[in-house]
Design a protein that fits this description.
Helix content is 78%, strand content 0%. By secondary structure, it is mostly helical.
Length: 151
C-alpha cells in the first residue's frame, strides 16, 4: 500500500514540476535513458548540472562585477548555462537565460543584474524540488525507472 502511495506522490510531484514550468520534455527523455544498469542516471545528471550551473552562476556574478560592460563575455557565460539547463529540461532556468541574453543584446546591465537574481532563485528552487523528487524515487526503489506523468 505504501508503495502505491509513494508512486502517486511521485507522479503528482513530477506533474507539478511540468505544470509549473520548471521542467520540459527533455527531463522525460533523460528518464527514458535510465535503466537497471544506471538506476540513478537522472539524479547523477542533475547533480552534475547543479554543480556546473552553480559554478557558472558564480562566474556570471563575478563577470558582472569585474567586467560590467563586457556583454559578449556575459552572453557567452549565460549561453553555457542555458545549454546546461536545456540538457536536463530546466525550462524556467533556460527561459531566464534567454531574458538575460536579451538584456546583453540591449546592453542593459541592470536588466542583467535582475535576471541573474531570478536565475539564482530559479536554480535554488529547482534544486530543492528535484532533491525532494529524487528522495521519493529512492524510497520507492529500483522497481520502476522512468516515471510517466505525461499529460
Amino acid at each position: 500500500m505504501e508503495y502505491s502511495n509513494l508512486r502517486r506522490q511521485i507522479i503528482f510531484m513530477k506533474k507539478n514540476l511540468f505544470d509549473q514550468g520548471y521542467l520540459d520534455e527533455q527531463f522525460n527523455q533523460l528518464e527514458e535513458l535510465q535503466d537497471e544498469s544506471s538506476p540513478n542516471f537522472v539524479e547523477e545528471v542533475a547533480a552534475l548540472f547543479f554543480k556546473d550551473s552553480s559554478r557558472l552562476l558564480t562566474n556570471i556574478e563575478q563577470a558582472i562585477d569585474k567586467y560590467p560592460q563586457d556583454f559578449y563575455r556575459l552572453d557567452s557565460l549565460v549561453q553555457q548555462l542555458k545549454g546546461s539547463g536545456s540538457s536536463i529540461g530546466a525550462l524556467r532556468m533556460k527561459n531566464e537565460c534567454s531574458v538575460f541574453k536579451a538584456n546583453c543584446n540591449d546592453r542593459n546591465l541592470e536588466g542583467c543584474r535582475r535576471s541573474l537574481q531570478k536565475m539564482k532563485r530559479e536554480h535554488a528552487t529547482l534544486k530543492q524540488k528535484l532533491e525532494s523528487y529524487f528522495q521519493l524515487l529512492r524510497q520507492v526503489g529500483p522497481r520502476d525507472y522512468a516515471v510517466s506523468s505525461r499529460k
